[in-house]
Amino acid sequence: MKKIEPINEEIILDNTKYIESQTDTKGVIVECNDYFAEISGYSKKELIGQPHSIVRHPDMPRIIFKLLWERIENGHNIITVIKNLAKSGRYYWVFTHFEIIRDINTKEIKGYRAYRKAVSKHIADILLPLYKKLVAIEKEKDIKESEKYLNDFLASGGEDITIDNLMEEIHNFY
Ligand SMILES: Cc1cc2nc3c(=O)[nH]c(=O)nc-3n(C[C@H](O)[C@H](O)[C@H](O)COP(=O)(O)O)c2cc1C
Predict the structure, then answer these.
(1) pTM of structure
(2) Of 42, 74, 115, 170, which is least packed with CB atoms within 10 Å of its CB?
(3) Domain extents for the chain?
């Protein structure tokens, strides 16, 4: 896959539309909608069969994806705020709802589905400094340290705050 150089230019999303995709259990894209292709700048043909990290932005901390995978592999739905990278190098922020797809008969996890909507600038402004700090820790130290920083950050906001309810709270509030 060609490496995309990020540029500091935001793609403004239509907040009446969802960016949708479906993956197998490893995160390889098996389906997506037209809006995903339009915003990411890839054709559906280019997207299908690729790992979802095709739109991974370097400003996203590894710990956020680690937590995401821990949740979904254990069968839990989750909301996450993600900054994505388009083919042009521009970025777009999305609220992403992850859902589990199960085999009707065996109930085994067959894959995952994600629905994304626009994030207000206000939310991106809250999360960007946290994500930047986590990325910096991961560069200087490791993911264990960024996980510790994230847990301390959440604990400082009161009891029982997890990354899931932080995201959900932000989602419900704005
Ligand atoms: C259904 C589904 C949707 C995903 N959507 C995104 C996405 O929009 N952006 C993203 O960076 N990662 C997304 N991921 C996570 C990627 O699979 C991957 O973990 C992440 O990009 C980090 O890539 P890396 O582990 O290669 O660094 C999604 C995963 C699943 C299962």
Answers:
(1) 0.93
(2) 74
(3) 19-173
